[in-house]
Amino acid sequence: MIPAPFEYERAESIDHAIELLGGADDAKILAGGHSLLPLMKTRLAQPSLLVDIARIGDLSYIREDSDVIAIGALTRHHDVANSELLQQAAPIVADTAQKVGDPQVRHMGTIGGSIAHADPAGDMGTVMLALGAEFVVRGAGGAVRTVAAADFFKGLFHADLAQNEVLAEIRVPKTTGGWSYIKFHRRAIDWAMVGVAAVQRNGSASVALTNMGETPLRAAGVEEALAGGADPATASARADEGTAPPSDAFASAEYRKEVSKVLVRRALEEALG
Amino acid sequence: MTNVSVTVNGQSREADVEPRTLLVYFLRENLGLTGTNVGCDTSTCGSCTVLLDGESVKSCTLLAAQAEGHEVTTIEAMADGDTMHPIQDAFHRNHGLQCGYCTPGMVMAAASYLQENPSPTEEEVREALEGNLCRCTGYQNIVTSILDAAGSMSGAKA
Amino acid sequence: MATTEKYVGQPVLRKEDPELLTGRGRYTDDLSVTGMLWMSVVRSPFAHARIKGVDVSKALEVPGVVAAFAGSDFEWAGPLLMAWPVTDDLKNAPHMPLTTDKARYQGDGVAVVLAESRGAAMDGAEVVDVDYDPLPAVTDVEVATEHGAPIVHDDFGTNESYTWSLTNGKVDEVFANAPVVVRERYRIQRQVPNAIEPRAILVEPNAASGHFTMWSSTQIPHVLRTAMALATGIPESKLRIVAPRVGGGFGSKLQVYPEEALALAVAKKLGRPIKWVETRSENYVATHHGRDQLQEMEIAADEDGKILGYRANILANMGAYLRIIAPGTPVLGGFLYCGAYMGEAYHVSITGVYTNTTPVDAYRGAGRPESTQAIERAMDALARRVGKDVVEIRRMNFMPPFTEATQSIGGLMIDSGNYPATLDAALEMFDLEQMRKEQQARRDAKDVRQIGIGFSTYLENCGWGPSKVIGNVLQYAGGGWEAATVRCHPTGKVVVITGATPHGQGGETVYAQVAADELGLKVEDVEVLFGDTDISPNGWDTYGSRGAAVGTPAIAQAAARVREKARKIAAHELEVPENEVEWKDGAFRLRGAPDVARTIPETAFAAWRAHNLPSGVEPGLEGSAFFDPENLVFPFGAHICAVEVDTETGKVDVLKYVAVDDIGTVLNPMLAEGQVIGGVVQGIAEALYEEAVYDDEGNLVSSTMTTYAIPGAPDVPSIDVGMPTSTPSTTNELGIKGVGETGTIASPPAVLNAVVDALTPLGVTQIDRPATPETVWRAIRDARNGTGGAA
Questions:
Q1: Is there a cis peptide before residue A120, judged by omega within 30 degrees of 0?
Q2: What residues of B are in contact with residue C22 (Cβ under 8 Å)?
Q3: Does A46 touch chain B (CB under 8 A)?
Q4: I need a surface site. Which of A54, B57, B63, C233 has the fewest CB within 10 A?
Q5: Percent of chain C with pLDDT over 70
């Protein structure tokens, strides 16, 4: 299919991108395009202006910054997955990047693009939530703000990004403890039917869920039970507390709730085992 | 219209296109390179796989404008004259294709993957093909072909 | 050059590969004609709606749009061809290329837009204004037969189109008196065929001569030409249809589509070439679907499990219109609800039902996967009931081996069969004992991941088909013979021209193998032409596993005629009587002096020059033949599958799969195995992954490749294939049975039986299709709660 017609502009810098985004109320940022273009081809999205930020040179990097790994928003999933630094210092991020999409998608799609898209079925947002990552957002007039992952995901496909803001950097804390990301899906190529990220952080376990509501969710009940000394099998029974998963072509909400308990237990056993 | 200048199969190619022109239609309709096929509209089937700077991408999910200044390689450039690329040759010898429609995408995906991992296992090859659907072969002979090609390509280098 | 090499039975590499591997094969979308317009079809978003008006004026304002038409702008010579009225009282609503009164399914075409570019045609189609009055829709085949259901075709007052039935023996008596009756109910979910090449059409009109050339991604250029003549009024003599490279069909391109008639009609109206390429989203609603049945399957048996009778009542969803062979598709399985087993009584009743859904028609296996899954799953139910092993229950009920045509209780005259032999071979390959041990160990350990083993010992009928039978017995409107011409060029190269239309199966290669063997030639000296109605003889194309079983004998016969004539020329040149030359090692040789010989190329050259031909022999060396088989062919086999089921999540993985098929003479083992493997994987997809789901309003929910789960390479196993030829077919001299559909026919019940077997200790005796994680999880939960599983 062919997208509806639009104007196309190429940004030379973040500031230039922010300026260009002011050109139309419905302007959209194009990074790898792997979230946006499929929607445009089926005409579910019809922005009048695309601002291509892929050529902004200084947004693709993975570097150590004391106890944090800083990842440029334009870093491709493929590079995240294959980063030796991430494999050592935040292995759940590298591992999850390898589970996103397929090789072709990972060669084009960017970590910033998929996080900013705020799809509750996306894997990386869940991992960011479990890790307590932070996002650096840049706006007009040189404004820079840092948003915690816990505050970033506002709703279905809705991130804490103004129309003229750009997600510039992802900051993930180094993880030294156990971890697990289980992506449960029917086919290898599918989005997660349910996903579970479990990470040992500062002596406690942090658990987050994919596709169990309108945003990535913390499994607060599970975390509370664990903090209270429950074992994974007992704690995981609370996995569906506060969730509102979708019913769709792949599974019902009821099934997602039940299977999330199994997956949380398995993720905890792997992360804490 | 947007001017697009891309190196395709080693040649610099240029055209004025509508911004909405997808790379796959730029290749097929502006450049006449019809070997790259379109099988879906959801970036699922992988029939349109080409190499962008040597790595596999789905050319139906890329604007031609996004390829500006990059190098694109399509199925038409894989053979050296009448000599097929080892991957193509392995598909031929192992009956790795039936209707042939997904085949260029499979070959390009394999070419990209074997650069990353020159001696994969069967399971790794299957994983590497997760972005390419085939309805005829059941994948088995495609996987065999790629393992065979990996063997002959590493043998050739040694 | 004579060659003594024999090609039949050898894994000859495919002739079609080099162009397909290098991107030089030409599919329809690869073709363009100067001045062509792009067509886009405006489709109803509603499953059922009265159309109060169609206004195309806004589309005409879109840049690049040249014309737009509603259904009322066309006058058709006739409806789209429906060729299989299976009963005399079948209710068929004429299907016009665009609907004018009501939209009857989501995707029903209401208007077309023509534009200078692909994108502009879509832009125009988006703004065509159609005034719909939505109506309640019915999508479920059972609901559609209930009183008060929405009626798809108002004039009929019912959604039931026909009921076809077949009875052998005293069915009621047998069932009334049988000690054991097993009664099962199965829902065969709807499938979307998903050939990876979407459909595409290009029409070039010649305004001066009134000729039209249409390239179409079709399995049936010959049938289509006749159908297009009937719909558009363009005579067949002025209509050329070409199927270039076709990217898979699986039955979905065995069809006469509205867009084909529309492209011709618009080309005629505007005098310009027209191109239409289906998008994948469009494919999901506009290309026909497959399966979709509700089955009630009963077996009557004695206490030991010896079968006495079979009774099946089938509701078959036809969708909104009857397409080319739709009513007959379930009937193709109507003789097979007894599988390869014996019995005294047999009854099948099939009711075709209209619904507000995409029309349903042939999909790989067409009717036989449905019947096979019914009997093979019911066999497991019978085994459970009488406490017999699933292998034993099959063995004790098999028809005994036979080499001459034998009548089954289902009413088929079967060419040959040896059902225990394929089961034995499959068991040997599978190592059942080891797998049962592993299964028991997991059961004993109460492992979360349980193992199940499933069997399917199938029989099918294919090789469409004997014209007299399909016409007189089955009431099919067309024939089923095949045609071929073998033409020898003066330099020794040979062209085989077939009326079959291969589209990925490897027909070019096996046809060349057969012709090369018949004529003592190298396979590379034989070219195969097909798929162009101006070039190929007027055959019946490729579907129903007929390419090898019906297409090949026609070629062999045509080649035999060439040889008959060549013998006369050879004897004349050698100056001996004909009976003194014999065909040996690829040449005509003088008896007693084999070095004195004439090859086919030599006689072809002599026939071309015609300087010295025997009296009464015409110049040129060419032979044609029409082959009309007397009967169908009947492949069979045994498939065994092991699955691992995660009993907490319901996810199923296939661990091991063995397929042993007897397809008679194997022309090319590499290609035949390729057909089996591809078919089995498509069947695994049917058992575990794929389902076309409609919501209550008639919206297709699984309408893209992201929501309709075609499995990928990581999701499916490798298949171990065995292919003994123990029983050549007696239907054709070459002994060929079909192979194109055996895999999809055999595999779904093997997989589903394995899933049930894995869960038997948990009390599960029934599983719905497809066995998705949620479906399996529910079956386990219901069995635990005692609320299900007792079907």
A1: no
A2: 35, 75-76, 78-79, 84, 88
A3: no
A4: C233
A5: 99
C122 vs A2, A187, A249: nearest CB = A2
- Judged by a CB distance cut-off of 8 A, whether residue B18 touches chain C is yes
This prediction's pTM: 0.97
Taking the C-alpha atoms of residue C287 and residue C487, their distance in angstroms, rounded to an integer, is: 37
Segment C37-66 shows an average pLDDT of 98
C residues 277-336 lying closer than 8 A (beta carbon) to A: 279, 281
Collapsed DSSP state (helix, strand, coil) of residue C554: helix
Flag if B141 and C674 touch (Cβ within 8 Å). Answer: yes
Residue C126: partners with Cβ closer than 8 Å, 6 or more residues away: A4, A43
Chains A, C: CB contacts within 8 A come to 64
pLDDT at C4: 65
pLDDT in tens, C316-365: 999 999 999 999 999 999 999 999 999 999 999 999 999 999 999 999 99
HSE-CB at C316 with a 13 A cutoff on CA atoms is: 36
CB C678 within 8 A of CB C743: yes
- What's the confidence (pLDDT) of residue A1? 85
Furthest-apart CA atoms within chain B: distance in Å: 49
Q: Band of the pLDDT at C786, cuts 50, 70, 90?
A: confident
pLDDT at residue number A203 = 84
Residue C468 token pair: 């007299």
Q: How far apart are CA C168 and CA C345, in angstroms?
A: 5
Percent of chain C surpassing pLDDT 90: 97
Helix (H), strand (E) at residue C186? strand C180-191
Side-chain-side CA neighbours of C601 within 13 Å: the count stands at 14
Q: How confident is the model at residue C791 (pLDDT cuts 50, 70, 90)?
A: very low
User: Residues 87..146 of A with a Cβ closer than 8 Å to B: which?
Assistant: 101-105, 107-108
How large is the average pLDDT for residues C483-503? 96
Among B residues 125-154, those touching chain C with beta carbons less than 8 Å apart: 125-127, 129-143
Task: Report how far residue C601's alpha carbon sits from residue A233's, in angstroms, rounded to the nearest whole number.
Answer: 79
On the question of a cis peptide bond just before residue A72, with omega within 30 degrees of 0, the verdict is no
Confirm if C486 and C552 have CB atoms less than 8 A apart.
Answer: no
Chains touching B, CB cut-off 8 Å, 3+ pairs: A, C
Q: Give backbone dihedrals phi and psi of A212, rounded to 5 degrees, phi first.
A: -115, 15
Q: What is the DSSP letter of C595?
A: E
* pLDDT tier at C465, thresholds 50, 70, 90: confident
Task: Say whether A186 and C709 touch across the interface (CB within 8 A).
Answer: yes
Tell whether A262 is within 8 A of chain C (Cβ). yes
CB atoms B20 and A188 under 8 Å: no
Average pLDDT over residues C700-709: 96
Q: Is B39 on the interface with C (CB under 8 A)?
A: yes
Q: pLDDT tens digits for C568-594?
A: 999 999 999 999 999 999 999 999 999
pLDDT the model gives residue B156: 60
Identify the segments of chain B with pLDDT beneath 70. 156-158
Neighbours of A215 (CB within 10 A): 20
Q: A142 touching C, CB under 8 A?
A: no
* Chain A residues lying within 8 Å of B57, measured CB to CB: 104, 107-108
A44 touches C at CB < 8 Å:
no
pLDDT of residue C2: 58
Nearest to B43 among A10, A30, A34 (CB): A34
Burial class (CB in 10 A: 0-12, 13-18, 19+), C134: middle
Contact B34 C26 (CB under 8 A): yes
The verdict on whether omega for the bond into residue C465 sits within 30 degrees of 0, i.e. cis, is yes
Q: Is B53 on the interface with C (CB under 8 A)?
A: no
Chains that touch C (3 or more CB pairs under 8 A): A, B
